[in-house]
Design a protein that fits this description.
heterodimer, A: 297 residues, 11 helices, flat, B: alpha+beta, D-Maltodextrin-Binding Protein, domain 2, Dipeptide-binding Protein, domain 3, 2 domains, 5-stranded mixed β-sheet, 4-stranded mixed β-sheet, 16 helices
């Protein structure tokens, strides 16, 4: 036992060093990706520890501080209801990040299942799935969302579900295309010739080769979802007041008071832009690192 | 006195200027025909006035259709007052409490479009329209004339109404732009209903020339309009513009002649931001301010606990900081509302005459907590609050303030946000479990506010009130023809309701009506009757 402990510590420190080395290498090779990772990380920290980071509650009105410009007391100024903008941005990360992540995760999972299976199995299954997707895509996106929300009712989870359904249909078509390309490759033919089962071919040979596409779709979709959430908030389907979401802050009072108190629109807008930028950069870098075809380039 | 040559020249110049300028000024005051007026509008869901309560449809039809009576308009009419005058009716009499006889103008012509092709309007058209209004399925405004028992044409130009019971507001209802637009039987028979754009045929001052869905409407002068010489304006261009930033930019550049918000106003939040720029860019703009009749309120299930206890309702009202609502969302300019909105200045009881109930409009969270404790809720209670945002950031802001104020006294309001259609179908008509928060239609007379909201089993009795005292007073005011006595009764009703707090009324904002200086003889007011307010207006440009 006396000898096992230092060995464990040694192993741990080796793993730690390897992690640091990997992260350092990633940062050197992909500086923009590293910056994206920092932004995404910061947003996740904001979302998780909002109560500790924000100096005020998201609905605390501060007497005599209506629409105050950014200052030492209120870094990002205050809004028309005398609330601290920085605190609301921090709390807003919770909604925007949750909606973004949950939606994209759900959408990507569904789209991958539909797209890959449709391309791989082909035939009647492909025909039926693709016609359903065609029909789904032929409706304007707002009609679909409003219909789904009318059935399910407003609320954060239903927003996630309706946006995920929409995103999944679009993404599945792209993933199907990428899978069809991958299926033309000789290694898939070889796997088949060797008698590999469907599950093995899909999991070991096809999925790794469409991961890059999936990551790009996910990162691009994330920004779009954050913006779509703002549209839904404005239509009354999003997060009910007074809970802040970046989209809601921007399209709501941020837009109304844009000329008089531009910071009310600038900061939530900047937060959305930064989030979209961060996710895109990180996604790009991850794609470069994870895509077997781009590995080492 | 010696006059130099310079003095003589100056005097001559002044005389010349006087002779040239004086007639021009005189001419400028005489109404001038012609020109195009541009305004912002909303895309109507359809054009059948009997199938929708939507202001989008009723505003468009206010230009093209006539009614029996209408509200007087013009600079001489104080906003918030609605004197009645004849529209298609030249005169009217009331032989007894339940009979009204209207004499129609002769020579009134329908728009020159098939299938009516400019034929003369007769009493049969009025009878058809009223019966259609009362019997067609889906007319949510039919209640306005529910008192009508029978309408008949006694000759080609005379229409007689017989009511089931005395209804002192009958003439106000007939002149209300929400009520009966006079339509032709042939048009209804040809198209089945009046939803199609081709069915927009009336006897009003303008004719629909073109409709471009989601883009706009064009109206041209009805040359055979029954008031000789009117309207003065040749063409009305109405633009559908759903984006506020775009509307604001369009107004700044001079595209619209009147304020882009209903009813020809600019929201104060926007006004504060652009007024200085407007002074430079559009120095001739005219403005006037008057309170909005649109009042939000908290309605609650007063037929159930805890809201059946008046102490709870009093506490809810005392919890609300109304001045904070005026200070922030309304930019410091607003009016407190008793049960009849202050905007209806002839009928709303002033707060200093509201009596004992006035004290519940104060902001007193300590007293609210004491009342809640006395009612058995020392720690408050949770409620759900049904809500839709109507696409209005102002309403969202007010809701947040209300929610915060209630939280301070221990009432934890969870917002149950609904989509607009779902909200109207449920909460707006009292189908909710706990409370609802939202605005009410800005009616033009108190009866619509009071009877709709307080009479048992009325559709808009959101708070499920069944109070025999109120019901009795509401019936009595409808039977009181003497205006002064009726006003006193309406004031009594408000005093009683203030003590009950069946609804917690919020303040209203103050409209800023804005119009181009070149638009003469125009007087802004509330209501959908854009066409009526522009009928005798003219353009000096």
């Amino acid at each position: 036992m006396a000898r096992a402990k230092p060995a464990l510590e040694h192993a741990r420190s080796t793993v730690g060093i390897r992690w640091i080395t990997t992260v350092g290498k990633f940062a050197r090779r992909k500086p923009l990706g590293a910056m994206g990772a920092v932004i995404v990380g910061a947003m996740l920290v904001m979302a998780v520890f909002a109560e500790r980071i924000a100096p005020y509650g998201y609905d605390d009105s501060i007497r005599g501080a209506r629409m105050k410009a950014p200052s030492a007391a209120h870094w990002l100024g205050t809004d028309n209801l005398s609330r601290d903008m920085w605190s609301r941005i921090v709390y807003g990360a919770r909604v925007s990040i949750s909606v973004g992540f949950l939606t994209v995760t759900l959408a990507v999972l569904a789209a991958t299942a539909v797209g890959v299976s449709s391309a791989y199995f082909g035939g009647a299954w492909d025909l039926i799935v693709q016609r359903v997707v065609d029909a789904w895509l032929s409706f304007p996106y707002l009609i679909i969302i409003l219909s789904v929300m009318a059935v399910l009712g407003p609320g954060l989870l239903n927003v996630v579900l309706s946006l995920a359904l929409l995103l999944a249909a679009t993404n599945s078509r792209v993933i199907r295309g990428a899978t069809l390309t991958a299926m033309q490759q000789t290694y898939v033919e070889a796997a088949r010739a060797m008698g590999c089962g469907h599950a093995r071919i899909i999991v070991r040979h096809l999925l790794p080769n469409v991961t890059a596409t999936i990551i790009i779709l996910a990162t691009i979709g994330l920004g779009a979802v954050i913006l779509a959430e703002s549209a839904l908030s404005f239509l009354g389907f999003g997060v009910p007041p007074p809970h802040p979401s970046w989209g809601g802050m921007l399209s709501g009072s941020g837009r109304t008071y844009m000329l008089r108190a531009p910071w009310m629109a600038i900061w939530p807008g900047a937060a959305i832009s930064l989030a979209v930028f961060g996710f895109n950069m990180l996604g790009d870098a991850l794609r470069d690192v994870l895509d077997p075809r781009l590995r080492g380039s | 006195m010696r006059l130099s040559r310079r003095d003589l020249l100056a005097a001559g110049g002044l005389s010349l200027a006087g002779t040239v300028l004086a007639p021009r000024r005189a001419r400028a005051q005489a109404p001038r025909r012609g020109g195009t007026l541009s305004l912002r509008t909303w895309d109507p869901p359809h054009f059948d006035p009997f199938q929708t309560i939507s202001y989008k449809t009723h505003i468009a039809l206010s230009f093209t259709h006539s009614r029996l009576l209408k509200h007087k308009a013009g600079p001489q009419v104080a906003p918030g007052t609605f004197p009645v005058e004849g529209d298609l009716a030249e005169s009217w009499t009331q032989p007894n409490d339940t009979t009204y006889v209207f004499k129609l103008r002769r020579g009134v012509r329908w728009h020159n479009k098939p299938p009516v092709n400019g034929r003369e309007l007769t009493a049969d058209d009025v009878v058809f329209s009223v019966n259609h209004f009362l019997t067609v399925k889906g007319n949510a405004n039919a209640y306005m004339l529910r008192s009508v028992d029978k309408v008949e044409a006694t000759d080609k130009y005379t229409v007689k109404f017989t009511l089931r019971e005395p209804f002192a507001w009958f003439l106000d209802m007939v002149s209300n732009p929400h009520a009966v637009a006079i339509v032709a039987r042939e048009v209804v028979e040809k198209y089945g209903d009046l939803k199609k754009v081709e069915s927009v045929i009336g006897t009003g001052p303008w004719m629909l020339d073109a409709y471009r869905p989601n883009v706009g409407l064009s109206l041209v002068r009805h040359t055979a309009y029954f008031l000789a010489g009117l309207p003065y304006i040749d063409r009305i261009e109405m633009t559908v513009d759903e984006d506020n930033a775009s509307r604001m930019a369009a107004f700044l550049s001079g595209k619209y002649d009147i304020g882009w918000e209903f009813p020809g106003t600019i929201n104060r939040t926007d006004w504060v931001q652009i007024k200085d720029t407007l002074k430079q860019k559009r120095p001739r703009l005219q403005t006037t301010e008057f309170p909005s009749p649109v009042m939000s309120h908290i309605s609650m299930r007063t037929d159930q606990k805890p809201f059946s206890d008046p102490r709870v309702r009093h506490a809810m009202s005392l919890a609300i900081d109304r001045q904070a609502i005026i200070d922030s969302p309304f930019e410091g300019v607003g009016v407190m509302n008793p049960p009849v909105p202050a905007a209806l200045k002839e009928w709303s009881v002033p707060f200093d005459k509201l009596g004992e109930g006035a004290k519940y409009y104060r902001h007193d969270p300590t007293e609210a907590r004491r009342l809640l404790a006395a009612a058995g809720y020392p720690n408050g209670f949770p409620i759900s609050m049904c809500f839709t945002n109507y696409g209005s950031t102002l309403l969202v802001d007010i809701t947040q303030l209300v929610q915060k104020d209630l939280k301070v006294v221990g009432i934890d309001a969870r917002i149950d946000q609904k989509e607009y259609g779902a909200y109207i179908a449920t909460c707006f008509y009292g189908k909710f479990d706990s409370t609802t928060f939202g605005p009410q239609t800005g009616f033009l007379e108190p009866d619509n506010f009071l009877v709709g909201q307080y009479y048992p089993d009325e559709l808009k009795n959101q708070s499920h009130i069944n109070d025999p005292v109120v019901a009795d007073m509401l019936v009595r005011q409808r039977r009181t023809f003497d205006v002064a006595k009726r006003r006193e009764l309406i004031h009594d009703i408000q005093r009683y309701l203030a003590k009950q707090q069946y609804y917690v009324q919020m303040p209203s904002g103050v409209y800023i009506a804005v119009w181009e200086g070149a638009l003469k003889n125009y007087g802004p007011n509330m209501g959908y009757d854009y066409g009526g307010r522009l009928l005798a207006a003219w353009l000096d440009r």
